[in-house]
Amino acid sequence: MQDAIEILKIYNQDHIIKLLDKLDETKKAELIEQINKIDFHQIMELYDNTKKEIEIKENKIESIKYLDKERLSKTQRDEFDSLGEMAIRKGEYAVVTMAGGQGTRLGHTGPKGTFKLDVYGKGKYLFEILTENLKEANKKYDTIIPWYIMTSKENNDETLEFLEKNNYFGYPKEFVNLFKQGELPLVDTKGKLLINKDMKIKEASDGNGGVFSSLRTSGMLSDMKERNIKWVFIGGVDNAILKMVDVTLLGMAIKNGVKIASKSVVKANPHERVGVFCKMNGHPKVIEYSELPEKMAEEIDENGELKYGESHIMCNLFSIEAIEKVSKEYLMYHSAFKKNSYIDEDGREIIPEEPNSYKFESFIFDSFEFFDDIAILRGKREDDFAPVKNKDGVDSPKTAKELYEKYWERQKCQKVRVFLKLLSRF
């Protein structure tokens, strides 16, 4: 306890010292254990960074090369597909789904993956949609792809219970592994750590960039290596038409000899609020819309397209070596100023009306900067990106439902055309 108090004094967390005096022995022991696990130096550095302005020098930013899937020659496409298919059939491919979030923005109580999208009248859960995606790939390539699901401390038990209840939607249970995302404390505008109702320091998930360290510390990275996995796809739970198994993307990465690859879609307009691919200081990067100068956002290339128009859609591919490398590095953290309730020194719950605290998150795309190159495959928005993020309007269940149903209608028509073409040969 004395060690914990000394740490709290050094970092001006007197309110927690006062709280310790009021707790019973059990609660006190739990809080002290938590204090001794927190890197206070790191948290205070992150807090100090919230006072600094982000500065980006335009001359260090360059556009980045990509291949358009629709414009690949038949020779290119066949070679990529063959390389990708071979790796999958050999059992060298795994999928990670980031599912640590709750569905609160959708008006849903529970993990976002348990949200039911109203498709074809009866509806399908987001987890169910992803499972169907994987099962189709397993059938096509005669394999069973290991599936790793990143949950959070908040939703892990509920996610496991949901999947068990639904028998993993027919996916082999022994090929599904859940692991938890890391967390970081929340800090108020004066650098004080917030206290939760359970009389512990209030923490929140450390962002999707935490997937790498979480894979390592949970033992999932070791599990992948034991299974002889060479490539890992990492995507979110909330894209209803996400292609988790794209042999063209995988084959392109293998052919180009890169460690990382990603799929993009073209920005809807110069000012769409999405992160875009670029190169900064000679390394691949995704730059947030808020950090890209307006002049650059509107810049046109020699083909009349946006020079910085490749949107990041959380459709990423990493070699196992890349994941191992990044898992040992420190990704930069971004701060988000949000409303968070807390317990004050007198034990009262305070529910703020305005943002009052900082949440620190690392982003998966910040890992790109550790590599010299990335292979980017441009897809089509209507074929690759149907996000379910907002309750209404853009990127809502309504827009995702429309995209999902139209996509699968096109797939059915395509299969009919192929069948009729084959039939005409006889």
Summary of the model, kept short:
The chain has helices at residues 2-10, 14-22, 25-35, 40-49, 74-89, 126-141, 156-165, 211-217, 220-226, 247-256, 294-297, 320-327, 381-384, 397-423; strands at 61-62, 67-68, 93-98, 116-117, 124-125, 147-151, 176-180, 183-185, 187-188, 203-205, 231-236, 260-266, 276-280, 283-287, 310-319, 334-338, 342-343, 349-350, 357-361, 375-378. It is of the alpha/beta class and 426 residues long.
Structural descriptors:
426 residues; alpha/beta; Spore Coat Polysaccharide Biosynthesis Protein SpsA, Chain A; 8-stranded mixed beta sheet; globular
Strand share of the residues? 15-25%
Specify the overall morphology. Answer: globular
CATH topology: Spore Coat Polysaccharide Biosynthesis Protein SpsA, Chain A
Average predicted confidence as pLDDT: 93
Report the count of strand segments.
20
Q: Spans with pLDDT under 50 lasting ≥5 residues?
A: none
**Count of runs of 4 or more consecutive helical residues:** 14
CATH superfamily, by name, is Spore Coat Polysaccharide Biosynthesis Protein SpsA, Chain A
Cα radius of gyration in angstroms: 23 Å
